[in-house]
């Protein structure tokens, strides 16, 4: 007795070759064998043409994706954030490409230092790219201890952009109570007391939903939202990370891209008034 699976398989095969249900599918010619042998070659060629076109379009889309930047239509000021993953960066080329700013990874947790931080920090400054340092916040480690680690590794610089804390680590802590909001606040307070400027908070929609839920409402944020503007904390963000596989001259391979909320004139005022030399604690 013919099984349901067999009938479904034959129906799908018939549909693939453009046959009506119940018609026998010709594997040899790729056409419906109801007196349609003569049209088999034509149908096969048409379908192969469509598949080829679809594959070509998919390939072109993959090539174009790094250069797809919706944010550029509404934001004049864009920059990058980098770490050792970008390897050696030609900061002079970055500057000539009119990259308006850069956030550079400095530290992580209580002991890790990004291997490219010192090099990137110095060379970005020499090339005239406004830059700030960021710390990757680790769950299960005290905020004050993480702040001390960041402070020990990042030089004071009155021209630097406000520091940032990257909060996206969502690991659960075992055996001890850990309140991310409290620990993040401790980090912010300690870093502000030392550098004289309040850090920004970088976060993602997932972390916001899981741990913040609108807390820290008086802070300034740097939000991740790929391609489309952030749908959370709409009035709180200063920077928007809109691409995770962008391209910029001077940087080999993909790089995160970010937009500043205001105009170029607004950004100039931000650089001078919100830098660690311009904004007082």
Describe the protein.
- The chain is an alpha/beta fold and 281 residues long.
- The chain folds into 2 domains: 60 residues, no CATH class; 205 residues, Glycosidases (TIM Barrel).
- It is built from 8 helices and 9 strands.
- An 8-stranded mixed barrel has the order 1-2-4-5-6-7-8-9, surrounded by 4 helices.
- Helix 7 links the parallel strand 6 and strand 7.
- Helix 5 packs parallel to helix 6.
- The termini are far apart.
- 35% of the residues are buried.
- The N terminus is likely disordered.
Tally of alpha and pi helices: 8
Major beta sheet, strand line-up: 1-2-4-5-6-7-8-9
CATH top level class name of the largest domain = Alpha Beta
Tally the beta strands.
9
State the secondary-structure class. Answer: alpha/beta
List low-pLDDT spans.
2-6, 24-31, 33-38
What is the CATH superfamily label of the largest domain? Glycosidases
> What's the overall geometry?
globular
- How confident is the prediction overall: mean pLDDT? 85
- CATH fold field value of the largest domain: TIM Barrel
Kindly estimate the percentage of residues that lie in beta strands according to DSSP: 15-25%
Kindly provide the radius of gyration, computed on alpha-carbon positions and rounded to a whole number of angstroms.
27 Å
**What letter string, H or E per element, gives the SSE order?**
HHEHEEHEHEHEHEEEH
User: Do you know the CATH architecture of the largest domain?
Assistant: Alpha-Beta Barrel
**Major β-sheet, in short?**
8 strands, mixed, barrel
Give helix % range.
25-40%
How many domains make up the 3D coordinates? 2
């Amino acid at each position: 007795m013919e099984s349901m699976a067999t009938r479904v398989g034959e129906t799908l095969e018939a549909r693939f070759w453009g046959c009506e249900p119940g018609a026998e599918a010709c594997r040899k010619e790729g056409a419906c064998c109801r007196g349609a042998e003569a049209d088999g070659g034509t149908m096969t060629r048409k379908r192969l043409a469509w598949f080829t076109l679809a594959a070509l379009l998919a390939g072109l889309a993959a090539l174009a994706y790094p250069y797809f930047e919706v944010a550029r239509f509404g934001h004049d000021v864009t920059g990058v954030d980098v770490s050792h993953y970008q390897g050696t960066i030609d900061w002079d080329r970055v500057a000539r490409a009119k990259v308006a700013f850069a956030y550079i990874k400095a530290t992580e947790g209580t002991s890790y230092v990004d291997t490219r931080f010192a090099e990137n920090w110095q060379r970005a400054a020499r090339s005239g790219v406004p830059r700030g340092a960021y710390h990757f916040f680790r769950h299960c480690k005290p905020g004050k201890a993480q702040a001390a680690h960041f402070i020990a590794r990042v030089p004071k610089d009155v021209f630097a952009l406000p520091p940032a804390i990257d909060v996206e680590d969502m690991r659960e802590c075992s055996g001890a109570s850990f309140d991310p909001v409290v620990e993040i606040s401790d980090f912010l307070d300690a870093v502000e007391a030392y550098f004289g400027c309040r850090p920004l908070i970088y976060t993602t929609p997932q972390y916001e939903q899981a741990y913040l839920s609108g807390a820290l409402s008086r802070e300034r944020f740097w939000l991740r939202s790929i391609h489309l503007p952030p749908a959370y904390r709409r009035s709180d963000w200063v920077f928007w990370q809109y691409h995770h596989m962008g391209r910029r001259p001077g940087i080999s391979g993909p790089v995160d891209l970010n937009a500043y909320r205001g105009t170029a004139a607004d950004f100039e005022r931000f650089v001078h008034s919100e830098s660690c030399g311009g904004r007082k604690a």
